[in-house]
Give the backbone structure.
Amino acid sequence: MKTNNDMALQTATFLLQVKAIKLNNEHPFTWASGRKSPIYCDNRVTLSYPEIRTFIRQRFVDVVNEYWGDVDVVAGVATGGIAQGALVAQELGKPFVYVRSEAKSHGLTNQIEGEIHEGQSVVVIEDLVSTGKSSLIAVNALRERGCNVKGMAAIFTYGLAVAERNFADANVELHTLTNYDTLIEVACKEEYIRPVEMESLAAWRKNPEAWSDAHMNA
């Protein structure tokens, strides 16, 4: 999971400025899984800020050009990657599709929405990588259609060990605009958090389940 340092620092700064990512050790957030976490990420917020939206789009374009070159199709992961992927496809002048977590139960029962064909090369755009499970469902759906998935680019990754394993096992190359370590570095420097909170944030990243169990009554 590679990042360019200047790009990672600026992306993290933007995400913190607009509260797309929030940090709170004392009053943890509850994820959809029910787990407690000191961090909450909603990168869709960036779409409301033209300067940041454009920055993210262009950095995605840079990553695609640097690591994968020309591709036939850009795919977004539903739902957070749809708008980001469409912006990237527009800038690259490429067709766009998006991939659901599962096929619809009605209508045409599509999992992939848009025109795509066997043998086409695809780059996948995602907003956030946690464990990688939902992201890789999209990759598998594209591969099952006979597409050549060159890799995935995401705005942010928590850098969890389970995600590293999942992407390696799936043989998917992942590049992100920024990551957890860079975010915490910027958050401390810009005083979004206190230095004393660094230990707790590091402990969460090392073992999210144990951290959650210790904070369930918070």
